[in-house]
């Protein structure tokens, strides 16, 4: 069956450390993968997108990797801050253009001072 | 600034009643989506539309309907509300970017309680 799995447990880290979140998928061949941030009581907000032919994408303190052989994406936040505390969702797009997204359940990140 | 809004933000209704949740976007996006979010399930797609007069079923469409009469609005109707439809509902929109991608813009959500 098709599945997208993210760390179900909350991730607790110390301020200043690097947070690494995992997104694994099975029986999908995504054209690209997206990461979103969701704060309590709010809608998700788009952060980064990485295509199937890209290994790594960076934006400020954020880095995403995409390994289509392992069927895995890693999302890193370097020099983490308490303001980075939120739930992070990964989403697959099965083809480019207009196609809909398939979301994972999300990982809750808590950054402690 | 362009935005996507949802109303109401909170709604309490009774089992068996018809309920309509509104979604309005000013991005001029062709694509609009409705999701529900429940603990442990993440975002699940209910219905989506790729343009005016176009609607499609998502993975959890039973008991829900949508119609798209203009670009800006995609109302979600619960025909006969059930307690299992208690959830937080998110509307989203997307348009094809110059890079050929389709990141979605989400509304603030509607918390629906069915008693």
Can you offer a commentary on this structure?
The complex is a heterodimer of chains A (113) and B (115). Helices cover 0% and strands 56% of the residues of chain A. By secondary structure, chain A is an all-beta fold. With 115 residues, chain B is mostly beta strands.
Provide the structure class of chain B.
Answer: mainly beta
| Main β-sheet description of chain A | 6 strands, mixed
- How far apart are the first and last residues' alpha carbons of chain B, in Å? 37 Å
Oligomeric status? heterodimer
DSSP strand content of chain B: over 45%
Instruction: List the uncertain runs of chain B.
Output: none
Q: Which outline of chain B best applies?
A: globular
Q: How big is the Rg of chain A?
A: 14 Å
What's the mean pLDDT score of chain A?
91
Distance between the termini of chain A: 41 Å
Set out the fold topology.
The complex is a heterodimer of chains A (113) and B (115).
Chain A: E1 3-6, E2 11-14, E3 19-26, E4 32-38, E5 45-51, E6 56-59, E7 62-67, E8 72-77, E9 86-93, E10 101-103, E11 107-112
Parallel strand pairs in A: 2-11
Antiparallel strand pairs in A: 1-3, 3-8, 4-5, 4-9, 6-7, 7-8, 9-10, 9-11
Chain B: E1 4-7, E2 10-13, E3 19-25, E4 31-38, E5 42-51, E6 54-57, E7 64-66, E8 76-78, E9 87-94, E10 105-106, E11 110-114
Parallel strand pairs in B: 2-11
Antiparallel strand pairs in B: 1-3, 3-8, 4-5, 4-9, 5-6, 7-8, 9-10, 9-11
Essential attributes:
heterodimer; A: 113 residues; mainly beta; 6-stranded mixed β-sheet; 5-stranded antiparallel β-sheet; 0% helix; 56% strand; globular; B: 115 residues; 4-stranded antiparallel β-sheet; 11 strands
Compact summary:
Chain A is mainly beta and 113 residues long. In chain A, 0% of the residues lie in helices and 56% in strands.
């Amino acid at each position: 069956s098709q599945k997208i799995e993210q760390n179900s447990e909350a991730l607790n880290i110390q301020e200043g450390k690097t947070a690494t979140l995992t997104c694994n998928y099975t029986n999908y061949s995504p054209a690209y993968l997206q990461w979103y941030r969701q704060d309590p009581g709010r809608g998700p907000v788009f952060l980064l997108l990485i295509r199937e032919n890209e290994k790594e994408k960076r934006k400020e303190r954020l880095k995403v990797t995409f390994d289509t052989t392992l069927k895995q994406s890693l999302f890193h936040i370097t020099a983490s801050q308490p303001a980075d505390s939120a739930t992070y969702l990964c989403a697959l797009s099965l083809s480019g253009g207009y196609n809909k997204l398939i979301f994972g359940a999300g990982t809750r990140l808590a950054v402690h001072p | 600034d362009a935005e996507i809004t949802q109303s109401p933000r909170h709604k309490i209704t009774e089992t068996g009643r018809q309920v309509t949740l509104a979604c309005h976007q000013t991005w001029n996006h062709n694509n609009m989506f409705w999701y529900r979010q429940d603990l442990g399930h993440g975002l699940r797609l209910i219905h989506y539309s790729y343009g005016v007069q176009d609607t499609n079923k998502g993975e959890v469409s039973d008991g829900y309907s949508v119609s798209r009469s203009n670009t800006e609005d995609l109302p979600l109707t619960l025909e006969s509300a059930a307690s299992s439809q208690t959830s937080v509902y998110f509307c989203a929109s997307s348009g094809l970017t110059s890079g050929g991608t389709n990141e979605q813009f989400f509304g603030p959500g509607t918390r629906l309680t069915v008693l």
